[in-house]
Amino acid sequence: MERILDRMDEPRDLKNLSDDDLERLCGELREEIIETVTRTGGHLGASLGAVELTVAIHRVFDSPRDRVVWDVGHQAYGHKLLTGRRDRFPTIRQYGGLSGFPVRDESPHDAFGVAHAGTSISAGLGMATAFDAQGSDAKVVCVIGDGGMTCGMVFEALSHAGHLKKNMVVILNDNKWSISKNVGGLSTYLTRLTSGPLYRRLEGDIYELLGRIPKAGGTAQEMAHKIKESLKNLVVPGVMFEELGFKYYGPIDGHNLGEVISTLEHLRDQDGPVFLHTVTEKGKGYPSAPESKTRSHGVSPPKDPGVGPQGPAYTKVFGDTLIELAERDPKVVAITAAMPDGTGTTAFGDQFPERYFDVGIAEQHGVTFAAGLACEGMIPVCAIYSTFLQRAYDQVFHDVVLNQLPVIFCMDRGGLVGAD
Questions:
Q1: Of 176, 282, 295, 331, which one is the catalytic site residue?
Q2: 35 tagged catalytic
Q3: Does domain 5-179+237-297 have CATH number 3.10.310.10?
Q4: What is the pLDDT of residues 134-159, one digit of tens each?
Q5: pTM exceeding 0.90
Q6: Which of 30, 139, 166, 391 is catalytic?
C-alpha cells in the first residue's frame, strides 16, 4: 500500500486528507522519524511527542504564509518531513545534509532559525507586530515545550505580548504528564466550549446586555466576569497566562488529533494573543520512551562494530571527580542548567541532593546564583554547556569577574564534539 507520507510534498497536501488518512499519516511520520534518527542520531523524543500537533498545525494554518516558529527545534522533525524535505530526511545531522534544527536558508517554512530555548515567543511577537504594521492578516504560531517555559526570556515575551495584544497563537507542548485525567477531561470540555464561536458571541451579547441595566450595569458586568473567571480557574491551570493578557485554553490531549485540529480552527481567527496548553507523551511510539524519557530525548547513532572498547567519557570523569571533591569539602556545590545527564552531574545530585541545584533553562540566573553562593564562602561549580553559557556572558563578567568571586565554570561540549 502506498504511504500517505510519500504524497506529502507541501503542507497544503494535508488539506484534503480524511480523518483516517491523517491518523495514518501520524503513524507513518513516527515510523520515518524512528527509522532515520536511530540510524543518524538526533533529538527523538520531542519530535515523536509533537507528531499530532505538527499535523494539526499544518492542516489548519497556511505555511509559509502563516509563520510557524518552533522553540529550540527539537520538535521539528515532523515539520521537516511535511515541508518538502522528505527525500533528504535520511541526511539529517549529516555532513552536507539537513540541519537538525529549523534554518531559514533551508526552507521558506522555517520561519525562524533556532537551537536555543526560549526565543520563539519573542520572535513570533515581532512577526505579528510587523504583520499588523503592514496590514497583513497572516497568522503566527509559536510552539514551545515545557522545558523552554523555564527561560526568563519567555516571560518577558509573554508580558510584552499581553501588553501589545497582537494576534498570535502560543502552543505549549507539555510532555510532563502532570495533569490528572479528571482535570484533563473537564478542562478539555471547557476548552471546546469556550473556544467555539457560539460561546464567544453569546458571551459578548450577555456582557453588553448587562451593561444596559440602569445604574447597575457596570457593577453587573464586573460581577459576571469575576464569577466566570473564578469558576474557570477552579479547573483550568491558566490563571498566570490570563493575568499576562492571554486567552488561555486547555490543557487538552495533544495526541487527540481531531481535538487539536478543532481547537486550532476555533483559535486561528481570534483577536489578541492566545495560549493553548497541550499535554503529550515524550517519545510516543518509541519502545523505551516510557521507561526513560531522558534516553529517548536524544539518541546516538549505532557504534561502529570495528571500534574497540573505549575509555570513560570526559563527562563521566568530571562527574566522578566532582563527587570526590564534594566528599572532601562540604562547601562544594554543583549547579547545572537543565542538563544534569549531559554535564555528568546526575550522580552528584543523587549523592548530595542538598548541595545540587538544577536551575532549569536559566543560565543567567544560574551564574548570578553561583555568585551569591560564592559571596558567602561556598565553592560553586557551574557545569553548563559551552554553547549555553554564552547566554550568560553579562552575568559572568558583571556578577562574577567584577566581584572577583571564586566561581568555577566547567563548560561541557567545548570545541568540535562529534556526537553533537
A1: 282
A2: no
A3: no
A4: 999 999 999 999 888 889 999 999 99
A5: no
A6: 391
